Amino acid sequence: MTAQPSPTTVRPAARPRVVIVGSGFGGLFAARALRRADVDVTLIAKTTHHLFQPLLYQVATGILSQGEIAPSTREVLARQQNATVLLGEVTGIDLEARTVTAHALEESFTQPYDHLIVAAGAAQSWFGHDEFAEFAPGMKSIDDALELRGRIFGAFELAEVAAAEGRHADVEALMTFVVVGAGPTGVEMAGQLVELSKRTLAHDFRHITTKDARIILLDAAPAVLGSFHPSLQSKTKASLEKLGVDVRLGAMVTDVDELGITVKSTGRDGDPFEERIPAVTKVWAAGVSASPLAKLLADQVGVEVDRAGRIPVQDDLTLPGHPEVHVVGDMASLHNLPGVAQVAIQGARHSVDEIEKALAGKPTGAKFEYFDKGSMATISRFRAIAQIKSIRLTGFIAWLAWLAVHLVYIIGFKSRLTTLISWFVSFIGRGRSERTITQQQVFGRLALERARREGDQGTSASRS
Amino acid sequence: MTAQPSPTTVRPAARPRVVIVGSGFGGLFAARALRRADVDVTLIAKTTHHLFQPLLYQVATGILSQGEIAPSTREVLARQQNATVLLGEVTGIDLEARTVTAHALEESFTQPYDHLIVAAGAAQSWFGHDEFAEFAPGMKSIDDALELRGRIFGAFELAEVAAAEGRHADVEALMTFVVVGAGPTGVEMAGQLVELSKRTLAHDFRHITTKDARIILLDAAPAVLGSFHPSLQSKTKASLEKLGVDVRLGAMVTDVDELGITVKSTGRDGDPFEERIPAVTKVWAAGVSASPLAKLLADQVGVEVDRAGRIPVQDDLTLPGHPEVHVVGDMASLHNLPGVAQVAIQGARHSVDEIEKALAGKPTGAKFEYFDKGSMATISRFRAIAQIKSIRLTGFIAWLAWLAVHLVYIIGFKSRLTTLISWFVSFIGRGRSERTITQQQVFGRLALERARREGDQGTSASRS
């Protein structure tokens, strides 16, 4: 009689499972870095796309389509046989059981792991005033960018009608745009709003003169672009003012309502004063707060998250007592590293190096060394700033560098090609090829919110 | 003492005012046709864009971005000095007072006219079952196309998770797609769904085999493409079936629910039977009904709208008793002309000719002569059908002709260029560059509807 080997002896050992939470720079670069590893990679994210955040403001202002900056994550990883992509919002991580739980609509699923990389990023923060969000939306997702696009272009549309009807107070509020937060995102938005009003839309209206639009950039800090060298800060402020942006520093937002924003500043006499600015369209680019998963993890390992909700990680990016868990990107706090793409990308690669060492039985725990490749911010057409160590660039050359670097990081040849074309159209020509806004964005969204507030059960479909 | 001429004698005569309602083919082509006329043109539309409807299905299936097929109306007319574009939903037309009333959010405005061209088009119709719309959305607007895109790509995402969790019944319902209505739109959608499942997404998933998706095309009529020659009808049906589409004719939809659709057909024995097909994603491309403005006008002139809600117009496209009002396109009924782009475009040009004659004091009332330039419909990559008089084309040559004709009608050089690139990517390559769907579309929309139904006052923002 031939002895049959029992199934347990012949089953091949299951491969180690690496679970990645998030499809931003940290999550996607981690997955790609594992492409030759003998592991099963499962990437769980709450959107279906990898978002190239630095160019979100170009979707919001009509230059690019969402497809150009948000490729499908599973399409990017389609040829990577060891990678599975699952859509789900991670709501639970159990460090003891080594499982991740996620929800997709009403269903939930649980994914066990041997190694975990958490790269869930950060969302917009209104500093405890979430009620500001309805009227001063943030810009951290495609949803946000499309919503803002609708509000920006919609504001000019409504101003045209208001001007035709002689409703001048409405025209002023509709043609005043306020950007809160003078970091790179705020500066870029303010610059693009100027371009829109002074160049792109200059011939499109008959009753309003779009060049008369007021663009206000606010920040509680005493300078714009807090993370840049003071000389670049002052050059940027000067550029913005030359473009016509009203830059108000030391200005703190105390209230936001549907038709305006209230700001507290210090007058020339040193006394504080509060002012309400009538402005329908407001963009909040002022604060970020880490994914709630940071707190969820912090509670389990007994540490405190910082003011931005980020979880402190060890020098090697792992959680205390859990060398199998790495946290990278905007949700992690280490040596005050900034929440920029390079930190997430390099953190992801470091984590993967560590995982590969662990799998090979080599010693782990190497410190994460961040290599600062510099920072850039664009102001407007032909104007940007860049700094790498002590090298500082401004103007046209910095702008070309900015374009080149961002073009390289866009995923997909087709997207790179059409992005180049869109930039040509927008920056050399006057066009904005992605201005399309949906009815829901102009008519429906505010009506929807209002209806929900008033308890009206009608659907927005009835308006179509 | 010099006699001062009184202001009334020196004020130049105000130019005649032409108001156009609608920014589709009829409205936009009418505005453009008036570019040299000595009139003031005001175009009022409820969207900010001119929608190229024939390519909507390509936005819904991820080939094109909305910007490529929906340029900003005011951008198209920016250089036409006599044209003003106003955003507003027209809710009233007073034929006696010769005014048009429109709403933009909560404000309304009234526009007087000397000549009026009403080209407000048609919306989707569910034949009296508007409740079907929530689960079988139509495809007549950018909102619709983006919603459908979210549902289509989202269905595969949810199927992947369901398959990973062993929820096979869910997988089947999620991987079954039903298109109701076998006109050109339905046929094109069915063809693209096959392409998506068999080509584009074939490598993107690990737990589901997208090639196993079921695509069902239903119509109560006994043939597909009712307006085409029978030989083309049977060739199309054969092509679709060869691609794997389940074409069911003589099938009437009796109910639609969130997870399925109920269909009544006749069995082989001649007896009717009803069947519920589990299918989460359903597209309604089956009926249109004219803008409510048709009824509003019909009531004022004492005529009846037809079954599709269209208002019968005189031979010269005017309303009885109102030679200053022309109605063109999908909302008008004359000699059973079909609701296609060429009818709207030629109707618009005829109306403008008539208006120019009236302004020059020449006799008006010339009959509208429709010149049938033929019809085309695409089935899938490399396959289409076309007919012009007795000339009939099928296959690759018809497909090239289809591409060429549609490319010519796309407005804007940049959009034409990027559309060509997108077609190259999608039809020669396997890519879909515009697959990005928003969280609101996947997670939020159904949850939002459900919440509203259940009276839950939470906002969708809390899910982000």
What would you note in describing this structure?
- 2 copies of one chain form a homodimer.
- Chain A is an alpha/beta fold.
- The first copy, chain A, folds into 2 domains: 8-46 and 88-125 and 288-359, FAD/NAD(P)-binding domain; 130-286 and 374-443, FAD/NAD(P)-binding domain, CATH 3.50.50.
- Chain A has helices at 7-10, 25-33, 56-60, 66-69, 73-76, 142-164, 168-174, 184-200, 230-243, 292-301, 341-359, 395-409, 413-428, 439-453, and strands at 17-21, 40-45, 83-87, 89-94, 99-104, 107-112, 115-118, 122-124, 176-180, 214-219, 246-249, 252-257, 260-266, 272-278, 281-284, 288-290, 311-312, 318-319, 322-327, 332-333, 375-380, 383-388, 391-394.
- In chain A, the strands form 7 sheets. The first copy, chain A, has a 6-stranded mixed β-sheet with strand order 3-2-1-7-19-18, covered by helices on one side.
- In chain A, helix 9 links the parallel strand 10 (214-219) and strand 11 (246-249).
- Chain A starts with 6 loop residues before the first helix and ends in an 11-residue tail after the last helix.
- Mean pLDDT of chain A is 90; it is low at 455-464.
- The interface between A and B is large, with 81 and 80 residues.
- Chains A, B: Belongs to the NADH dehydrogenase family.
- Chains A, B: This is NADH:ubiquinone reductase (non-electrogenic).
- Chains A, B: Its EC number is 1.6.5.9.
- Chains A, B: One of its GO terms (molecular function) is NADH dehydrogenase (quinone) (non-electrogenic) activity.
- Chains A, B: It catalyses: a quinone + NADH + H(+) = a quinol + NAD(+).
